[in-house]
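Quick one: structure tokens for this chain, please?
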Amino acid sequence: MLKTAGHFIDYISYHDYFRPESGGDAYETLVARGYLGGRYLRDLWGLIEAARHRYQIRRPIHICVDEWNVFYRRNDFARYGTLHEELYDLADALCVAAYLNTLIRNADAVTMANMAQMVNVIAPIFTSPEGLFLQTIYFPLLMHAQHRGGIALDALCESDGFTVRGTDVPYVDSAVTYDEATSTAYLHLVNLHRTQEAQVVVHAGHRPEVQPTGWQISGGAPDIVNSFTNPDNVALRQVQLPGGPTLTLPSLSAATILVKLPS
């Protein structure tokens, strides 16, 4: 396709839907998809760049992830019909948070990305004639929309992990963005471990100044959900942080932390 029409193409469209895999730990194979999805994006980007070089395509061609989400509970058309009203839990929210980090880490390749649905149909907002509630996956989107810099930084994170499909997946998934106007870095961190908190030590060349307030999504169990009767089981909440470069992430949590850097 790129050989024939690459001189006219701006984007390669890519869809990615996440579900647990059979033959493994259901939770781990689901939340690992955020990290594993990045490996595929780098492979696809390499193929695009190789084709551009081979066929002398001068125009840039990027990746558009224009459909992505967790989707596996209500994907049986015969049973449920066409309205896929998926009810999302905390594990799904952590998977979404990790995939948002993946998109940031691959910002050179992926310059457009969006969920295909926003309301009811595999969506972060659930409505009825009587009202609405915000699903767990709404809050990673909200956190990144409200607390993120405009520049993606290439930051290294070292963490223990677990193995899925022969690949080591880190328990602590991370991405970093930067706001040039305020010299502030935003650390986007996800602790995928089910039972253990994570101690994260921040290195930024100089002694980093961790801001006293962060934002966090967490819960007591992977299967906790929001509903009309309990709409706030999972939400985005401000948290107070201790001074110093060491941060504590609860198990089953996603957070955004601000770090002031020298201007």
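The two ends are 46 Å apart (CA to CA).
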